[in-house]
Amino acid sequence: MADGPTINTIAERAGVSIASVSRVLNGLPTRQDTVRKVMAAADELGYVRNAVARSLKSRRTHQVAFAMADVGNPAYLAMLREIQPVLKAAGYRLVLHSTDAVVADEIDVLHSLGERYVDGLIMSPLRVTEAHLEMLAAARAPVVIIGSVPEGTRVDNVRADSRTGVKLAIDHLHELGRRRIGMINGPLDTVPGAARGAAYREALGDLGLPYDEDLVQIGDFYRAEGARAVGELLARVPDVDALMCANDLIALGALDVLRAAGRRVPDDVAVVGMDDTDLAAASWPSLTSVSLGSAERGKAAAELLLDRLQGGDREPRVVTVPPRLVIRASTRQEEGSPA
């Protein structure tokens, strides 16, 4: 093939029409199975697309952005691992933004949709402000939000069920006989911080346990901040016998402090995290954690966005991923370990 592959040869290899190949290569709405066949044939034949010319012609960039608070947080990495293949199979490149949960940066990302540098956006903001809602309403490209938004917000939305997840954890700790259950939370002005704080209080009430402000410490969703918060709580309430942590990074900080203080886990203090990231299984002791379905949420968000990009004209959808409790050594005695 001295002159290189052409639309005709790609069509022949893929077993589809020339018109279908043209639609795929120009970024026009096409059935997913056709997109996969054409992209596979193009790769096999060594076809190199002129991205600039194609973008000018179709007014599409074939790029999608994913904006998250912290690219180092393994929960977001789990989302990314599912988002990437879904979009890649449809011919889209992924552009990443790590906003550090700075509202102004997230608003800039939403505003830049008008510049058409990407065809769509997946965003997972820790805070949802009036400015976010105004920009979402005026967005010039499809947007999917991972995380809760106010009811009535007209945007595709994939959310976790933190309320049920926290209840699963508190019920588990209660069944183990723990009654002085502390909560290490992130900032209460964030969506997860507010939801998990309220769920903790509700779960205690359901079990007939009193809510004690001394057992609650607010920090941030990072390991070092978790360690600082746990140190302060232990100094104030030394008889705490369990810790409900708002994410796995906070829980890892808790394990660091408890180990340094000579407090045995789970014998003296049982610890539960949230997100069930890869770090939970690799920690010492391994960490009991509530899976909020980070991977499932990422995949669902990518599929919702892809449907919009392919011309899906429908009412906004809300997808809620159910939680599950993954029990490990931080709340149970491992077989063969000393009592």
From TrEMBL:
Pfam families: LacI, Peripla_BP_3. One of its GO terms (molecular function) is transcription cis-regulatory region binding. Keywords: DNA-binding, Transcription, Transcription regulation. It comes from the Bacteria. Residues 5-58 form the HTH lacI-type domain. This is LacI family transcriptional regulator.
